[in-house]
Amino acid sequence: MDTQRSEDDVRSERRRLLLAAAAALLAATRMASARAAAPAITVYKSPLCGCCGGWVDHMRRSGFDVRVNSVADATPYRERLGVPPALASCHTAEAGGYAIEGHVPAEDVRRLLRERPDAKGIAVPGMVPGSPGMDGPATAYASLLFDAQGRTRIFQRH
Questions:
Q1: 145 shares its domain with 108
Q2: FRET label pair with 11: which of 26, 76, 109, 115, CA 20 to 30 Å apart?
Q3: Structural domain containing residue 77
Q4: Could you tell me if 107 and 132 lie in one domain?
Q5: Which of the four pLDDT bands, split at 50, 70 and 90, describes residue 136?
Q6: How many separate helices (H) and strands (E) can be counted in the chain?
Q7: Each residue's pLDDT tens digit, 49-104
Q8: Same domain for 31 and 83?
């Protein structure tokens, strides 16, 4: 009788371990899927710029997979991505084949990637107080969509 109980205990323990392993595998698969679904964005920024770091944090908190490249000057990246000089800010990024210039809110980048307009990218020129990563009181501003000729149109008002 003790032998039977012992075999039942072993079977029960095996079942419990298999269920725990299956639950762990399911959780790991869900986490991997969530990471794979996170939009990737590559950022070129000065290692000394605090507001750029604030924007990177904003993008990460918003679910983006952010890859940061610390560079002395973002101008070559800005030029390669076709960002007009008039739209320049303190950092440049690339996501889904688009240029992302400056303190563009994460929701605007998501919309850009979802709608896929015929454009080179999106920008918030300068360093607008209250935009993501920037300190200061909220200021009205707009995210601008720009094309290869440098023409802009308002993408989103904030």
A1: yes
A2: 26
A3: 40-157
A4: yes
A5: confident
A6: 4, 7
A7: 888 999 999 999 999 999 999 999 999 999 999 999 999 999 999 999 999 999 99
A8: no
C-alpha–C-alpha distance, residues 100 and 104, integer Å: 7
- Which residues are paired to 99 by β-bridges? 94, 121
Among 55, 72, 122, 132, residue whose Cα is nearest residue 95: 122
DSSP assignment of the chain equals -HHHHHHHHHHHHHHHHHHHHHHHHHHHHHHHHHHHHSPEEEEEE-TT-HHHHHHHHHHHHTT-EEEEEE-S-SHHHHHHTT--GGG--S-EEEETTEEEEES--HHHHHHHHHH--SSSEEEE-S--TTSTT--SS----EEEEE-TT--EEEEEE-
